[in-house]
Amino acid sequence: MLSQTEKRKIYHKALTILAKVGVEIRNEEALGLLDGAGARIDGDRVYLEQHHVEEALAVAPKYIPVYDRNGELALELGSNDNYYGTGSDNPNTKDIQTGERRKSTIDDVANFSRLVDALPDLDFLMSMALPSDVPTKLADLYQFKTMVENCSKPFVFTSADNRNTMELIEMAEAVTGGEEELRQKPFFVQYTEPTSPLVGSDDALGRLLLSAEYGVPATYTSGTLPGASSPATPAGTVIMSLAEELSGVVISQLKKAGAPVIIGGAASPMDMKTAGASYGLPAAVIVDRALSEVSKFLDMPVFSEAGFSDSKLVDGQQAMEASISIAEMARSDADLIHDVGYLESGQTGSLESVAVGNEIVGYVRRVHRGMSLDDDSLTVEAIERVGPGGSYLTDSSTLDTFKDLYQPELLDRQGYDSWKESGEKDLAARARDKAKKILKNHEPYPLDEEKLDAMEQILEDARSKL
Q: Which end of the chain is more exposed for a tag (fewer CB within 10 A), N or C?
């Protein structure tokens, strides 16, 4: 979307913001690190020069491997691949049995985890549900344990504040076998973000610094509301977001050179008609793609978003908005693309919507794979063999290659009469059936009992401190 010259221009404007406007840093350790690096500091306002940023970019990893729960390499951040996953912390869930919107529970976290574990085109997990039936101060610990127990894929994890980050790392070490094992084969990415405009909160920077200390990959990605917490124009939002994120890169590398940090970010523009955040407006996709491209221009791994909708249910709007965002982000350089399955602008999670999103990702991936030009795919011998007026239906080339056409599971290809006989189901009903079938039959790869017990003990210790 952007030329090299345009990417460079945005980067230089972000450097100007850091030098002239600065960022507010509300974490004492981060302020100390920046002071030691010679940054100009006025109270909690910090001004960074170009050399601070470029020194940090020079040592920040260009490639970050992330493993699954079993220690197998699963994600190669910084490569040319897009990886898709769900979002986090929806306060509401659309009940798959009743169809009603209700408060999310810890069982919803388990159900979303098992569904993602089974879906072939979702590569990582985020919780999708903020449980209302566990102690609020320990909700992130409950989420973490539930996700690990029900999904062996890597995940990106959020927490309300920095209070429980150390316990989360201890849980992760219980799974991997220790601190060094977690450092060598991290299976989760810690999500943290600045507070727009241009503020690094104590909690967010605390998570970033602790992640750097223990070698856990961490995002420091903006989540802006253009028109409210960032400029209304896509270009202005991209410049401001990049300035915020680059300040995080500087801090993480001052804490530990080579600490794995991810930038990129996402935007949910304010809909001036409703005063609400909109995931589905075109400006959101434009900002997401631009941030991805500029971040990769700086040779940094990228976190972004796609597969979401402002719709309240799985319908035409949901399918349209999810499809457009996934198709556009597939053309970007983003590594981790989250929020697949979000409804209601990130307020409601839906198992059906996640299943539809998985289908869209598979479809788009097949399109982007294009066509092969090897000898088997050219089928010149088959064309010669069948000749004019013949049929390819019974030719061996069809049997050998037709599966490469990709057959979506949820999209209806039946004739009208067959569709009527099979229950006249629409996309939402078929997605619901698929999700129910997975929840009934899919069993995640089991986690060792001693690891489960170790996580439960950490959770019990945290409960006793309340």
A: C
Confidence tier at 270 by pLDDT (50, 70, 90): confident
**Cβ atoms of residues 349 and 104 within 8 Å:** yes
Q: For residue 102, what pLDDT is reported?
A: 98
Q: What's the burial of 88, exposed, middle or buried (CB within 10 Å: 0-12/13-18/19+)?
A: buried
- Token pair of 274 as six digits: 């409703």
CA–CA dist 221, 89 (Å, integer)? 17
Question: Each residue of 332-359: b (16+ CB within 10 Å) or e?
Answer: bbbbbbbbbbbbbbbebbbbbbbbbbbb
CATH class held by domain 58-368:
alpha beta
Question: Cβ(270)–Cβ(224) under 8 Å?
Answer: no
d(CA 253, CA 128): 30
pLDDT of residue 162: 77
Which residue is listed with tokens 């699954």? Answer: 68
Query: What is the bridge-based pairing of β-strands 23-25 and 199-200?
Result: parallel
3-state secondary structure the chain: CCCHHHHHHHHHHHHHHHHHCCEEECCHHHHHHHHHCCCEEECCEEECCHHHHHHHHHHCCCCEEEECCCCCEEEEECCCCCEEECCCCCCEEECCCCCCEEECCHHHHHHHHHHHHHCCCCCEECCCCCCCCCCHHHHHHHHHHHHHHHCCCCEEECCCCCCCHHHHHHHHHHHHCCHHHHHHCCCEEECCCCECCCEECHHHHHHHHHHHHHCCCEECCCEECECCCECCCHHHHHHHHHHHHHHHHHHHHHHCCCCCEEEECEECCEECCCCEECCCCHHHHHHHHHHHHHHHHCCCCEEEECCCCCCCCCCHHHHHHHHHHHHHHHCCCCCEEECCCEEHHHCEEEHHHHHHHHHHHHHHHHHHHCCCCCHHHHCHHHHHHHCCCCCCCCCHHHHHHHHHHCCCCCCCCCCHHHHHHCCCCCHHHHHHHHHHHHHHHCCCCCCCHHHHHHHHHHHHHHHHCC
The domains of the chain are located at 58-368, 375-404
Rounded Cα distance, 150 and 172, in Å: 14
pLDDT (0 to 100) of residue 271: 83
